[in-house]
Amino acid sequence: MMRILAVVLAGLLTACGVVGAPVAPETIGVAPTVKRQQEQREAAELRQRDDDDVGEIEEPYPAVQGQDEDLPPLNPVGTR
Fold it and tell me: What is the dihedral angle through the alpha carbons of 12, 16, 18, 21, rounded to the nearest 10 degrees?
């Protein structure tokens, strides 16, 4: 048990201080987040306007009034 703990502890200690990939300062903070959200909002509004311009179906699909033919009753299959 102590060996496992020593290995885990050694792994954690060597992992501390490891530098990850650099992050550009332009992508961190409130202003870039607000700008990105604004761009996403504008893109969604543009898609909505494009969908509205396409138009709607003139006549809706006819509602199903009933079945064309009677179906046999549902009986369980393969049960004992």
Answer: 100
